[in-house]
Task: inverse folding
């Protein structure tokens, strides 16, 4: 887990030293264990151009040997990398059999260098893990970048007239954009603002400085022959989509599916336990984190788990965490946090580098900061709700698809309650959603922050993005959109920003490729038998966890924002 940046400049001018210093400052919190920089000369139409590779390191795998930027022995291929490759030992053995000679003991970064030599642009398809990396191959006059399949590790890019850049955070690219006098883009701002007011995050859209997110499962090739830049964007992986028949839903019993999920989840947890630094597990006492902790305990008898203890009993989950920890026989650290909501919120806003409306970034930051005093790596249950349908909206979508005619009979205006999460208010939103003609409008009525009428009043004009077109495939298509858009745009953005603000590496076993592909190929009725949230996963949890953990109401990281601000 680190921070990276790459700048390609082709106007015949050297990259100024203060650019390097300011980009380093923007990424320093992600890697307190060291900074490495390489300046590589390249040929351009105006003479000499440059590539700058910068890396802020958080040492986790092979601390002595994994220093970056890393180069081949010949110096023609260089890499900066953020994340962890879980199958790096297997790939290393395969490459050695093919004649490659390694110089580090067990660095996963070196696997990327030799993997590039051996597989070229197909390299990402061989990798199991969370990653974002940039490779500079000067022999081919090429820069290659890729991001992991789920989007656990962020990667952003920026293009100006004579510069192309990648970075782990938009804040680093904003530095480059400002120094290159690229200016601001009002069209980008309007489009991004509409998306933000709908969902509460920017996602893949271009922001004011023109920076855009590299998509999960995307690979990008930048060629700069003689100073002319050409960009090729491609996808090396897409999740199965039930709505389009891609990874067609398989008919299978709940018990058979549960057995396969258990096998795949155990493998995913085991793969994420390698580290040369202290490792632990978040434990909130909910189903997802408790399952991860229980499976990790099978491999690590001395596993430490962490839960934040909130002062307000309305939002404190520590009693549930204690029950789960006692049942699965793990050590639990109840972490007292120093909450400074206003001060910490300002810090996180600066670090995200863009508007972000998920208030749970605050408690995620607090528990990460407290856990970092004890460990460098933690496992978490993030991704379980997206894969196994743990949100109310997943059940509402299926209910709408099955019972829209009946739900339209509900008197919408008389159901509205004062509390947004009250049963009356949920029925009110469901009744309004049932009156919409298209699924996307029904879905938006359930999940969006502002409805379309208010949105048009706030930001006039349409932008033609996917939010204004229907989602094909009914509830299946909307669930797919949840995984491909909301997961990387909101949840994983929050986890990365909050944890890396403390230099803590978070690993998510639920987002393992094999488990993801299997879960996304299962019929919705298998995942939610009897229209029960996360029914399949809860059935599996009953084998390892106490009833109080499995059947407890979902809390999430809620906060008394109305009382604080």
Result:
């Amino acid at each position: 887990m680190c921070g990276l940046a790459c700048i390609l400049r082709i106007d015949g001018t050297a990259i100024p030293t203060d650019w390097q210093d300011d980009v380093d400052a923007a990424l320093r919190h992600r890697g307190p264990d060291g900074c490495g920089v390489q300046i590589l000369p390249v040929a351009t139409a105006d003479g000499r151009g440059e590539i700058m590779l910068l890396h802020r390191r958080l040492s986790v795998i092979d601390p002595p040997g994994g220093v970056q930027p890393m180069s081949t022995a010949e110096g023609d291929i260089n890499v900066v990398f953020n994340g962890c490759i879980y199958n790096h030992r297997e790939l290393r053995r395969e490459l050695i059999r093919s004649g490659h000679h390694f110089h580090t003991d067990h660095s996963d970064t070196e696997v990327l260098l030799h993997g590039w030599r051996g597989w070229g642009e197909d390299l990402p398809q061989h990798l199991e893990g969370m990653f974002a990396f940039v490779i500079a191959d000067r022999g081919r006059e090429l820069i290659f970048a890729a991001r992991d399949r789920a989007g656990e590790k962020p990667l952003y890019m920026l293009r100006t007239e004579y510069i192309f850049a990648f970075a782990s955070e938009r804040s680093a690219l904003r530095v480059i954009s400002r120094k290159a006098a690229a200016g601001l883009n009002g069209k980008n701002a309007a489009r991004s603002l509409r998306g933000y007011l709908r969902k509460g995050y920017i996602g893949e859209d271009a922001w004011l400085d023109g920076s855009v997110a590299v998509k999960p499962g995307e690979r990008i090739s930048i060629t700069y022959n003689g100073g002319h830049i050409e960009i090729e964007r491609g996808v090396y992986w897409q999740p199965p989509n039930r709505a389009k028949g891609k990874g067609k839903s398989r008919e299978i019993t709940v018990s058979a599916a549960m057995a396969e999920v258990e096998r795949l989840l155990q493998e995913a947890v085991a793969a994420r336990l390698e580290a040369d630094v202290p490792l632990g597990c978040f434990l909130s006492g909910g189903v997802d984190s408790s399952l991860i902790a229980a499976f990790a305990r099978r491999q690590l008898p001395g596993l430490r788990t962490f839960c934040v203890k909130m002062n307000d009993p309305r939002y404190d989950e520590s009693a549930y965490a204690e029950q789960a920890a006692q049942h699965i026989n793990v050590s639990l650290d109840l972490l007292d946090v120093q909450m400074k909501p206003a001060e910490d919120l300002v810090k996180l806003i600066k670090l995200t580098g863009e508007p972000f409306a998920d208030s749970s970034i605050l408690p995620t930051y607090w528990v990460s900061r407290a856990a970092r005093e004890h460990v460098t790596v933690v496992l978490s249950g993030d991704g379980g709700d997206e894969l196994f349908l743990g949100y109310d909206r997943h059940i509402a979508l299926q209910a709408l698809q099955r019972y829209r005619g009946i739900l339209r009979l509900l008197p919408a205006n008389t159901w509205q309650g004062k509390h947004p999460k009250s049963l009356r208010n949920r029925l009110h939103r469901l009744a309004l959603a049932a009156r919409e003609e298209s699924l996307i409008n029904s879905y938006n009525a359930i999940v969006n922050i502002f409805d379309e009428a208010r949105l048009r009043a706030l930001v006039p004009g349409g932008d033609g993005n996917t939010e204004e077109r229907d989602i094909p495939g009914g509830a299946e298509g909307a669930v797919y959109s949840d995984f491909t858009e909301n997961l990387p745009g909101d949840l994983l953005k929050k986890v990365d920003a909050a944890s890396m603000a403390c230099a803590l590496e978070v690993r998510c076993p639920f987002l393992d490729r094999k488990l993801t592909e299997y879960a996304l190929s299962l019929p919705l009725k298998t995942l939610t038998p009897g229209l029960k949230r996360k029914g399949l996963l809860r059935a599996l949890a009953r084998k390892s966890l106490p009833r109080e953990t499995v059947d407890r109401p979902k809390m999430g990281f809620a906060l008394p924002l109305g009382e604080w601000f």
Remarks:
- Residues 474-500 form the longest helix (27 residues).
- DSSP finds 23 helices and 17 strands in the chain.
- Residues 393-472 form one domain.
- The chain has three domains: 3-235, 242-388+477-564, 393-472.
